[in-house]
């Protein structure tokens, strides 16, 4: 294990300039220590975990303490300053002992994991797509920053962590680029923002993060947890009530931007608000080309079944909404224009999702995939390749169970067919039927719209369609199902713990 750590450390440091050696050494060993913890003591009672960890690092301290080469001393120094409390003491003792007799220790080695956080800034894109938290380590020999990018369009997860230049150069770059607001915050507040976002990131099975995130996260956590002050938790984001959403729609319809809009304007504006509030961070009045893409190309086609009459109205209403929101938030006109241009770019995604027939209803009428409506069965007939779903057997069910099964089973059939392939639709239908018949009390433990998604998640994993070498990853599957991996895992486990499912 130690030879592997030494080899990894040497490779990580070989490709960076000498000025970054103390930072890269800290990052490399922090990452390796975290990986060892996941592999060697991931489960068991807390006392058992502590014993394994203590014995391991005590042995590592003994072996490294007996060596005299510089590489092992660099590793020992890094471990003594990054390993958690359970294993730190023997490593620190071995480090002190070797320091007394070690020859020709470069000055940079003494700086490993010894940097002091002096200030922090938060830079936020004016579109609200994300923010960067910049931690300033103003050291005389090795000044640098640690930059953490948080993506609001994915629920405020951390997408990137990297080591940047000194903070004055970072500020110069932000000022040259424009389109950002910059504020200074106290280090405990910055730490709280980062740790909350890190918690959101860890809710994903396979978050869409950069390689630098994987490398520098251990360093980031190590530095934040060793701060002298406790992190300050960010304020809880206020919820937007149903009445507040309706009021915002009314204000939009009464504005100059709503003049001449189609009859579906109120419905479409409300969908925009619901998507922005429930699936992103920053609120419904964000004016962002990325938010336009998410709404038009990903969320709305999976949320609504409608014909071209309804979907033709969406771009017009969204453009008017963006102008309305840009005016209220006093955004620069070029930012608003950029978001409006994005509507034209992503309009074909809506056109591709439009149904051929108006599902036996009036032209322009739409059907929510999460709604319990008697028209759903007819809606599925317009979906190419799948035909009509089977008819659920409603005998022996009360009115509530019959209504639930009539919606749930076709939804599961549709989602499995669309997401995994037509061969998996019958199994999804069968599981949904058994859920309503055999475990009706289980339905109260999740939203009705979550159950078909969980059924598809379960089938994908049971048939090994997710994983290395497969086209689906847990993250892409969850994205296709418009849910989070954590929610899908939890709900699918309820199924496997309660029902005897087909293999």
Please tag this protein with its features.
56% helix, two-stranded antiparallel sheet, 503 residues, globular, alpha+beta
Describe the structure.
It is built from 19 helices and seven strands. It has 503 residues and is of the alpha+beta class. The strands form two sheets. Strands 4-3-2-1-5 form a five-stranded antiparallel β-sheet, sandwiched between helices. A two-stranded antiparallel sheet has the order 6-7.
Summarize the structure.
The chain has 503 residues and is of the alpha+beta class.
- Structural class assignment: alpha+beta
The helix content, as a percent range, equals: 55-70%
Oligomeric state of shown chains: single chain
Q: Spans of 5+ residues with little confidence (pLDDT < 50)?
A: 356-361, 371-384
Name the strands of the widest sheet in spatial order: 4-3-2-1-5
Number of domains: 4
| Total helical elements | 19
The number of distinct β-strands equals: 7
Q: Whole-number average pLDDT?
A: 85
N-to-C SSE string, H for helix and E for strand: HHHHHEEEEHEHHHHHEHHEHHHHHH
Give the overall shape: globular
Beta-strand share of residues: 5-15%
Break the fold down into its secondary structure elements and pairings.
Blueprint lengths: L1 H13 L6 H20 L5 H21 L3 H13 L2 H17 L17 E7 L4 E8 L6 E8 L5 E8 L2 H11 L2 E6 L1 H15 L9 H15 L16 H12 L11 H15 L9 H15 E3 L1 H22 L3 H21 L12 E3 L7 H5 L18 H21 L5 H14 L11 H13 L11 H7 L4 H14 L5
Antiparallel strand pairs: 1-2, 1-5, 2-3, 3-4, 6-7
């Amino acid at each position: 294990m130690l030879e592997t750590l030494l080899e990894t450390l040497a490779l990580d440091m070989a490709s960076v300039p000498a000025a970054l050696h103390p930072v890269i050494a800290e990052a490399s060993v922090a990452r390796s220590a975290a990986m060892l913890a996941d592999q060697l003591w991931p489960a068991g009672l807390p006392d058992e975990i502590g014993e394994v960890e203590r014995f391991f690092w005590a042995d590592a301290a003994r072996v490294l303490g007996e060596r005299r080469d510089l590489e092992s001393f660099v590793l020992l120094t890094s471990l003594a300053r990054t390993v958690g409390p359970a294993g730190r003491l023997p490593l620190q003792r071995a480090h002190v002992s070797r320091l007394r007799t070690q020859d020709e220790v470069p000055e940079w080695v003494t700086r490993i994991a010894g940097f002091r956080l002096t200030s922090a800034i938060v830079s936020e894109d004016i579109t609200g797509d994300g923010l960067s938290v910049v931690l300033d380590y103003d050291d005389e020999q090795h000044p640098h920053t640690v930059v953490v990018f948080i993506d609001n369009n994915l629920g405020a997860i951390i997408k990137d962590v990297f080591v940047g230049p000194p903070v004055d150069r970072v500020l110069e770059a932000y000022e040259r680029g424009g389109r950002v607001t910059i504020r200074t915050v106290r280090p405990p507040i910055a730490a709280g923002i980062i740790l909350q976002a890190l918690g959101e990131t860890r809710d994903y099975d396979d978050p869409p993060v950069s390689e630098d995130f994987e490398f520098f996260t251990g360093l980031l956590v190590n530095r934040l947890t060793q701060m002298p002050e406790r992190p300050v938790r960010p304020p809880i984001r206020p919820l937007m009530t149903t009445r507040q959403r309706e009021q915002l729609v009314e204000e939009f319809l009464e504005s100059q931007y709503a003049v001449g809009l189609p009859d579906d304007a109120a419905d479409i504006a409300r969908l925009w608000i619901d998507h922005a509030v429930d699936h992103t961070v920053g609120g419904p009045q964000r004016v962002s080309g990325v938010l336009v893409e998410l709404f038009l190309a990903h969320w709305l086609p999976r949320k609504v079944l409608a014909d071209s009459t309804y979907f033709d109205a969406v771009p017009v209403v969204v453009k008017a909404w963006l102008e309305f929101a840009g005016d209220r938030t006093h955004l620069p006109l070029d930012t608003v224009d950029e978001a409006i241009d994005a509507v034209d770019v992503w309009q074909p995604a809506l056109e591709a999702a439009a149904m051929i027939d108006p599902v036996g209803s009036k032209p322009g009428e739409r059907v929510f995939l999460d709604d319990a409506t008697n028209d759903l069965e007819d809606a599925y007939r317009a979906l190419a390749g799948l035909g009509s779903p089977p008819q659920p057997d409603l005998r022996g069910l009360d009115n509530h169970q019959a209504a639930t099964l009539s919606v749930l089973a076709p939804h599961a059939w549709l989602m499995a067919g669309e997401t995994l392939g037509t061969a998996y639709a019958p199994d999804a239908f069968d599981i949904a039927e058994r859920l309503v018949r055999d475990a009706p009390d289980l339905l109260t433990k999740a939203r009705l719209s979550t159950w078909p998604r969980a059924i598809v998640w379960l089938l994908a994993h049971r048939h090994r369609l997710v994983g290395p070498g497969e086209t689906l990853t847990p993250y892409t599957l969850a994205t296709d199902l418009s849910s989070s991996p954590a929610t899908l895992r939890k709900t699918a486990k309820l199924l496997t713990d309660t029902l005897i499912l087909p293999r």
